[in-house]
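Onboarding guide, step 5: your first structure request.
Type a short instruction followed by the sequence, for example:

Predict the 3D structure of this protein.
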Amino acid sequence: MELSLLMNFIGTIITIIVSIVSLAYWLGRKFATIDARFKGIDERFESLEKAIRNLAKAFIESHEIIVDFLALKGLLEKSEAEYLSRRIEGIFIVHESANPLTEEEWEFIRKYVSKAAKNVDDVTIEEADRAYKLGVKLFTEDFEWKGYLLAMAAAYTRGYHISKEVRKRKSKTSNT
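The system replies with structure tokens like these:
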């Protein structure tokens, strides 16, 4: 009787072990399938994010091309550049974010927009270029719309300085 009870007990244990192993195998395959699906979804999201970043860069770069074209024709005026600078000054006084800009970059932006809003002639082309790049970075990496405004205002300020130089060259050429 003890042997029969022991055999029943061992049979039950073996059945339970086989059931657990079968269940573990089945769950492993299901989780592998789910994991593969999540990997596919992650790849689609990465592709979408890349497409959005590229679209943001194309959008902002196309605007810069238009501003550069207007600047080369000498069509941008100080009042236009100052208007945009004043417009963004208020936005950037209250807006600060940790990503993707450093504290040093935020400090530069604060000083830049304050100086440009007062008088764009006090801003150098190099400062406008840096502000433009930081605006692009903020817009394309953090999808922050204020970065777009900063980049456009900086592009107009840069364009104003180029227009000023073009007008000077034209007046020198016409005076000689």
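Each response can be followed by summary notes, for example: The mean pLDDT is 86.
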